[in-house]
Amino acid sequence: MAYVDSKNMKILEILHKDARTPNTEIAREIGISEAAVRKRIKKLEAQGIITRYTIEVNPEKIGFSSISLTGIDTEPGLFMSIVQQIRSMEEVRAMYLTSGDHMIMAEIWGKNGMDLSKILTEKIGKLKGVKKVCPAIILEKIK
């Protein structure tokens, strides 16, 4: 495990809030030079601590009004095959393997309730080896 000092933790916190924060602004906030910030970020990337930069999209603004966090259970022998199939679906925006109530958790975006239902029942529910699909519709994102 890589050692992350307090300055690097502060850099990570700032970038987590806004990955587009300029290095000069980060430097000013934590009291080091812009060159030092740049070097630290490069090192965090090289260590695999920072793995990518991304954006957060409001799904409703682009036509997706029904979002679910869906638990999926599978036949053990078909687990990896199902993971690959679900991973490739464009409606699946995030996917996690878990040790909780379900083997797989997926964030799924649907244009509306009917579209989401179709994705859950016809695309995922009918995959060979899927035993259970348990959606929780997101009403509001808090954080």
Task: Give keywords.
143 residues; elongated; 2 domains; Arc Repressor Mutant, subunit A; 38% helix; four-stranded antiparallel beta sheet; single chain; Alpha-Beta Plaits; 5 helices; alpha+beta
Q: Could you explain the architecture of this structure?
A:
With 143 residues, the chain is α+β, with helices and mostly antiparallel strands. The protein has two domains: 6-46, Winged helix-like DNA-binding domain superfamily/Winged helix DNA-binding domain (Arc Repressor Mutant, subunit A, Orthogonal Bundle), CATH 1.10.10; 60-137, Alpha-Beta Plaits. The protein contains five helices and four strands, in the order αααβαββαβ. Strands 2-3-1-4 form a four-stranded antiparallel sheet. A hairpin with a 6-residue loop joins β2 and β3. α2 (23-30) packs across α3. It is elongated and about 55 Å long.
CATH class of the largest domain: Alpha Beta
Shape, per Cα inertia axes: elongated
Q: If helices are DSSP runs of H or I spanning 4 or more residues, what is the number of helices? A: 5
Number of strands: 4
Percent of residues in helices: 25-40%
Structural domain count: 2
Structural class label:
alpha+beta
**Proportion of residues in β-strands:** 15-25%
